[in-house]
Design brief:
Layout: E1 5-6, E2 24-30, H1 45-52, E3 59-60, E4 65-66, E5 71-77, H2 84-100, E6 103-109, H3 114-125, E7 130-134, H4 154-159, E8 164-170, H5 175-183, E9 187-191, H6 192-197, H7 199-207, E10 213-218, H8 240-250, E11 255-261, H9 271-286
Amino acid sequence: MLLNTYEPWKFAFSSENDEIIENSYGIIGVPFDSTTSYHSGSRLGPIVVREASFGFEKYNTIFNKELNTIFYDFGDVNVIPGNCKQTCKIIEETVNELNDLNVKPIIIGGEHSASIGAVKALSEKYEKLTVIHLDAHRDLAFEFVGEKYSHATVMRRVHEMGVDLVQIGIRSSSLDEEKYVKSTYNIQTFKNKDVHKHMDAIEYYLTNIDGPIYISIDMDVIDPAIAPSVGNPTPGGLFASEVETIIETLSHKNIVGLDVVETASDRLGDNTAVMAAKIIYDFLTLIE
């Protein structure tokens, strides 16, 4: 049990955390959605995603591999409703606790702002960090409705930490965000049509990234016909098989953290929750 967490449920196949093995993975939930601008409810994401995980069996037939990775579920972070900046600070402190245990974080959201705290902790631990960001939106606004800490500004705050940023699945943006991307040298973009038509080029690019990688997956990157329960659904998204390919490609790299955020549902068995659980399940199956 970490200092700022409690345990409402555990992800399927997680180990008991009374004796922590180093170089493993640790799940924390972030039940927070105070800056949500359209469809609220992602604060309930951690519990419905965990519940959905029990629909999978330990042998992953997609990858012909059994889930043998050692990982723990440390419960949910004690967030501060209405205070995004302070909640991000608590997430940062919690991820630093995991760093002290030599455990890599897997975050279940909750709104996308959770990535700020996680990347802050990891960017200070690792000298050259690359963030792979799967999303329908760039999330690069300098501020949103007067707030610098928000689901719509998360990748701007992350990029300001000095990380390299790779954005995949993008199909919605503002002119200011596009100008910001053009003004910098270390943001690479693959839009949704690139994924549909040029996956081989994306695989090649990801394979050639050196150094530690943090993966951030907003569930709205997936087409809303498949995963409709998100904060900001946007047509034209990725399919399950395309996400599988990206996760499989990245599983051979040095992955130091993962978040799967913006599942906004209070219904057990929700399609989006099942898809989010599957992404985490696939990642845990593939990672060595």
